[in-house]
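Problem: given the chain below (74 residues), write out its structure.
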Amino acid sequence: MRLPADSYHDGGVQAVSQTDAGGATACCFGGPDLYVTTARRGLAEAQLSEQPLAGSVLVFPGAGAGHPTTAFAG
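Solution.
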């Protein structure tokens, strides 16, 4: 299944990641890596056999970085 974890650079698609899980629920950057959680609840046994990584936290090493953080002054 195609997981919508595309990397964009200069307005174009830089890379597309494929995985055996659908239903991305959240994503965040940790340094140069992208972390994605996927849904499992409500999937039937047949769907779970097709998506063995459902309900997992996935890491895409070197997928990019998010926006720089802003320090809070107090």
